[in-house]
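thread from #wetlab-drylab

HS: before we spend reagent money on co-crystallization trials with flavin mononucleotide, can we at least see a predicted complex? here's what I'd submit
DV: go for it
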Amino acid sequence: MPSTFLHPLGVAHPLIQAPMSGSNTPALVAAVSGAGGLGSLGAGYLEPQALLDQAAQIRAATDRPFAINLFVLPDAFEVDEARVDAVRARLDALMEREGLDVRTQRPARWAPVFSEQLAALREARPAVASFAFDLLDRTRVRELKALGIRVVGTATTVAEARAWAEQGADAVCVQGAEAGGHRGTFLHAPEEALVGLFALLPATVAALDIPVIAAGGIMDGRGMLAAEILGADASQLGTAFLACPESAAAEAWKRDLAQAEDHRVGTIYSFSGRAARGLRNRFVEAMAPFAGELPPYPVLNALTAPLRRAAAAAGRGDLLSEWCGQAAGRVRPMPAAELVRVLMDEYVEARHALA
Ligand SMILES: Cc1cc2nc3c(=O)[nH]c(=O)nc-3n(C[C@H](O)[C@H](O)[C@H](O)COP(=O)(O)O)c2cc1C
């Protein structure tokens, strides 16, 4: 079935490659869009100029539509200096113990300035702009739409999905509890908003009159069809694309994904200060006793960045933020365009089998 949201944009398949800040590349986005899906550039960690450069690289590689995604954040953050000092000491001790020759640093700023990122997104004019972590105010939603950019909000509960619809979003992406990476939750405590996709998707479809995109644990064409049967207008897959050669995930991370057991995939705060789904590894266990002392996102995320970079360079998956969904063990490493073809073949086959 053509997606009512994607098809009018010229996207052939009801398939979105999820934005994956830090792990996606222009090559991944272009490969998916070029193969008939909608590639998404997670630009949450990019400074405005880098966002513009990467959008230009995508355009140089494909003339197909693509999405850019941002984390909705305030432009400035309050910082508890005592917490920063305490966690820096913990992290530095950990790195020393693990033989990583780096130490934490206080960055010039904790995260790129959201309003500047949004201005760059407007200049880049992707077909679709998607957002996570909070609502975008109505004026900004209207301004994007006036530029011809379709707006997608991320929701982890029906109430959040309703809130995005009221802001004027063109579609909502529901992120089931299964989903890899950061939780988009903004109205509730994270542990209250771990709703499985089988519960969240049909309830959201019943509550809204805009298209609903399904995300979380979908790894193959059967999963895409199952989402469609539950009312999804399209499926958004992240982890499935993490093991592609075009993904920037470290090699150790890609290896660990293939061996991931479902019970080892959990909700983790200790890399970024915000709930995110990934592999519970050595770092997560080492930081568990200090859970109550951690500064929130984006402060902790910025402080762990040198450690994560060093761990990736050293092939230490056990110290990396190995984000992934609950179905990570089913990744199939292959070029992204090939994966799109395989997913669509499976989807068509599953439709025929049902018919
Ligand atoms: C490594 C990684 C990074 C992610 N980064 C983002 C992001 O920048 N923005 C966003 O809206 N969602 C992000 N997500 C969440 C995805 O949009 C999506 O909800 C999730 O990948 C779906 O679950 P799955 O990974 O099981 O397919 C990320 C997911 C992963 C695995």
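DV: The radius of gyration is 19 Å.
HS: ok that's useful, forwarding to the group
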